[in-house]
Write a structure and sequence with these properties.
Elements (H helix, E strand, L loop, with lengths): L3 E5 L3 H13 L3 E5 L2 H10 L4 E4 L8 H11 L5 E5 L4 H9 L4 E4 L4 H17 L2 H5 L2 E4 L2 E4 L4 E4 L2 E4 L2 H12 L4 E3 H9 L7 H15 L9 E4 L3 E4 L4
Parallel strand pairs: 1-2, 1-3, 3-4, 4-5
Antiparallel strand pairs: 6-7, 7-8, 8-9, 10-12, 11-12
Helix pairs in contact: 2-3, 7-8
Length: 232
């Protein structure tokens, strides 16, 4: 089996060098130069690993990583960046990267990390799958299967609903602006009206709130955005 890797690097010489060496190791590599192309590519195909630079055109690597994590919890992400402070590493790992390698790097170390991450991504143990679930009150969200379980039963929700829920849960107790939601959930090419988001929030209240008219989890903050609170 040939494992598929998406390489996102805008420096042509480095991109070609990494691609060649990965292919010599037997991997199938798709190489792109900017963040927007990376997101479009990963939506169209499945990959076993994403190798991602941070300072890339159109959409930076951190935003790409965050968007990947909203849409896909399974694919490992290896950030490869010249930004080498501990704060940079922590930020990259916090938004969902599995590993962080600073430039310049040893090629053998890169290949070793690639091998480890691909093996890790293939495990899929029950404990790892459980990481894809979030529980609050009597509710549970399974982000990998788009399934929610409430006091009213279990049912499927849409991918877009799942992405919005995941964003709100990850920003728990913080106000998420409409602009952030439109950017992270709807992307950079489609901008629905804010009324669309209001309708999603109303749906979440019907799904999860004991009294939708007096919500304790999903709040609208007038003229600012929305907030999720894990309250009992």
């Amino acid at each position: 089996m040939s494992y598929r890797i998406l390489l996102v690097e805008d420096e042509e010489h480095l991109r070609d060098t990494i691609k060649l060496n990965l292919e010599l190791e037997g991997y199938s590599v798709v190489a792109v130069a900017d963040g927007l192309e990376a997101l479009n590519t990963i939506r169209e195909s499945r990959f076993n690993l994403v190798i991602l630079d941070i300072m890339i055109p159109n959409i930076n690597g951190l935003d790409v990583c965050e968007r990947i994590r909203l849409e896909n919890r399974d694919t490992p992400v290896l950030i490869v960046s010249a930004k080498n402070t501990s704060e940079d590493r922590v930020k990259g790992l916090k938004i969902g990267a599995n590993d962080y390698l600073t430039k310049p790097f040893n090629l053998e170390e890169l290949l070793l990390r690639v091998s480890i991450l691909i093996k890790t991504g293939l495990k899929g143990t029950e404990s790892e799958k459980d990481l894809y679930k979030y529980r609050f009150g009597d509710n549970e969200i399974d982000f990998s299967t788009f399934t929610v379980t409430t006091a009213k039963g279990s049912f499927q929700i849409t991918k877009r609903e799942t992405m919005l829920l995941k964003l709100l849960v990850e920003k728990k107790n913080q106000v998420v602006s409409r602009e952030q939601i439109l950017e992270k959930v709807w992307g950079y090419d489609v901008f629905p009206s804010t009324r669309t988001i209001d309708n999603f929030i109303l749906a979440f209240r019907k799904y999860f709130e004991a009294d939708p008219k007096n919500p304790i989890h999903f709040h609208s903050v007038r003229s600012v955005g929305y907030k999720f609170t894990d309250a009992n």
